[in-house]
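Q: Fold this one first, please.
A: Sequence and structure below.
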Amino acid sequence: MTADDNNRTLDIEGIMSCLPHRQPFLLVDRVLDYSLDGELWLKALKNVTYNEPFFAGHFPNQPIMPGVLVLEAMAQAAGVMVQLWHRRRNEYCPMFYLVKIDKARFTGMIRPGDQLIMEIHQRRTLRNMGVYDGTTSIGGKVVASAEFLCAEKRD
């Protein structure tokens, strides 16, 4: 699969071709839009359903998506963006790992039935690392934001 400038979306099969994650830990359902020119950015969607495995214990009768999984979802969206960028250039893209989170803020609760919209912007690259800004919103209201660093896996 290659990045297509005319159709800047990606379905679940396209996402799975970019990420090693699988259910129940694949936290990006669709890519809604992206840009691989100039500033790299990506907009993705996660549908939060009641049958998510984490809701059984977080918290029974008051289900709330754990903040750490919201951060993971944003990092996965960044991973899709990086894979698309490398594929567009016909370059090998190594595996990247989330290594640092800064300025994480949670300003709302995420419950079953919510539709998360994640917006990721690449701020800069440093050798084998990328620095990203991410926000997650529900209905236009930001419920989480963070800066994060991902690094290439070295053998």
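Q: Good. Now the second chain.
A: Here it is, same layout.
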Amino acid sequence: MKHIPSSPESDEQYGGAIAWMAKNSVAANLLMVIFLVGGLIMSRQIKQEVFPEFTTDIVQITVPYPGASPAEVEQGIVLSIEDVVRGLEGVKRVTSSAVEGSGMVIVELISRSNEFKLFQDIKNEVDRITSFPEDAEQPVVSLIDSKNKVISLIVSGDQSERALRELAERMRDELLQRPGITLVELGLTPPLEIAVEISQED
């Protein structure tokens, strides 16, 4: 069998990373082991969540305008607020509504922004507006943080409502002491009442 030597042109044709790995099998195997070990190490550090963490902070601006029609509220209040907040850095979306006697502007903030600083900037800009009608009241600017429900616990049993409420309050206090839990609220519980009975003579 006659051996035909390879020409320089054929070597150049099959050059590249695959050809280098074919010629250096030890280095290719070592590189593969490094990738596998690194992937296993990083997989243990990946954060896993049932509900992805996200924030949708919202600044709500409400201005009462007694006796005004929706058109007057839009022209005198809503448009003025929209003009000053749209240009602020960190504002994602601005939506507004005008009803009889009141106007509301919702400013949605971009995630990862400093919501407290942006809230103060929005409040300062709204306070500087001098074109509000004379009958309009002072604007109310508030920061609304969204909260996601993670889990619901139901306490039931052959007990009185007072005993179940005390048990639920004790569970709430114990859960709040655990790290990572910031808010626990009681729901579906009737409000506490005090009954005062007075005799008919008194």
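Q: Anything worth noting on the second one?
A: Residues 56 and 147 are 9 Å apart (CA to CA).
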